[in-house]
Amino acid sequence: MTVDSPMIPPSAPHRCVRRQAAGVLLAALSIGLATGSAAAAPLVAVRHADQEYVGRIVSLNRTRCVLMDSHGRLTELPVPEIRQATPTGRTWRPGTISDFRSSLIAETGRGYEVVGTTHYIVCAPRGQARLYAELFENIFRDVEQFFRVRRIAVRPPDVPLVALVFSTRTEFIRYCLHDGLQPSPGLQGYYSLVSNRVVLFDQTGSARSAASAAGPSGPPGPSVPISEDTADTVVHEAIHQVSYNIGIHSRIGTTPLWLVEGLATVLEPPVMRQRHSRNSPARINRERYDWFRTRHRPHRPGGTLARLIASDDLFRQRALDAYSESWALTFFLLENPVRRRQLSSYLKLVTDRGRLDGYPPEQRLADFEQHFGDIGTLEIQFLRAMDRL
Question: What is the pLDDT of residues 49-70, one digit of tens each?
Fold first, then answer.
């Protein structure tokens, strides 16, 4: 699951700071939007209440401003409450590996280690970080290749991608609450749009207590294989994280949930992420397909497709139906070369939107029909294809 945690920090005791004139303030904030290149974006210091935030501005309108710090964390601030914005004269740079490592170790401490790969920085129980790092890195390569092969544009991530794997569910829940997330009983992990981290817990942690017993100064203990359930969680959440960081989705604004979860569930089967998966039965996500065929399809009301496209309500009301329908629709669109090209164009439109003013249902539906044609006609074709599958 993806989590859109509250970005606006808690109000702190107000300190009297002279406010810049509105025009000067917006001009200073707009400096951070002067270039589309993250590597050359100006660094701006923004004061809200008694706190100062330093980063590059990734989105701005007259009411809201979103900054990204050097670790990729987003902070959303209400423009009318910003007291001051000052260009620093420097350009934004991602944090160094040492910065990330120090931060993660400070958060976790004894019993954890940090391992880096080409795209990932993974903090996990001692003796396990390398296994997790390799798994995350492999998923990155597979997902990136999946989109490249299908000629869907991708770009390099702005910052290293962070994954935090806790030893126990208790530690995981404690972190969730600190992160502003109330965990459901079955939650095993999540990707946060705000922190840009994947966070989960190691479901075989009790089997490796000896692995962390040496502590931070001792050698790592023996590696214990990652459990199947934990690996499944890693795959799903890493697909979200990679997709949001290579330009498939935008972390700013609203991306329809059917699109986010549809792509993630389509990519869950390992065969689907391989170059030659076109005719393999293993490319089908059996869990989502079985639910769609036996539990959702027999009682599925007409017009469900339009409802799924126009709003995210189905995810809140009948989550498993929504996930299975999203998988089925995305699979259907990707199976046909013409629809695949339409999906690529549609993805670009939704991602480039990246606006803070919401995504109204009528606009969501209009954008979809602009690329795929009449929703009623497509629904008939979609259901026929799924009934034949």
Answer: 889 999 999 988 888 899 999 9
Phi, psi of 197 (to 5 degrees): -105, 150
Domain boundary among 215, 245, 275: 245
Bridge partners of 111, per DSSP, are none
* Cα 124 from Cα 71, distance rounded (Å): 18
Q: Are the beta carbons of 285 and 265 closer than 8 angstroms?
A: yes
Measure the CA–CA gap between 50 and 315, rounded to whole angstroms. 38
The CATH number covering residue 13 comes to: 2.30.30.100
Q: Which of 211, 217, 201, 191 is nearest to 168 (CA)?
A: 201
252 in a structural domain: no
Identify whether residues 131 and 80 lie together within a single domain.
no
Model pTM? Answer: 0.89
Which of 9-23, 249-263, 351-365 shows the lowest per-residue confidence on average (mean pLDDT)?
9-23
d(CA 3, CA 191): 6
Mean pLDDT over each residue of the chain, to the nearest integer = 88
pLDDT digits (tens, 9 = 90+) for 338-347: 999 999 999 9
Burial class (CB in 10 A: 0-12, 13-18, 19+), 284: middle
Domain that residue 320 falls in: 257-388
3-state secondary structure of 56: strand
- Mean pLDDT, to the nearest integer, of 268-280? 80
Q: Which residue, 91, 110, 142, sits at the end of a domain?
A: 91
Closest to 284 (Cα-Cα) out of 258, 265, 259: 265
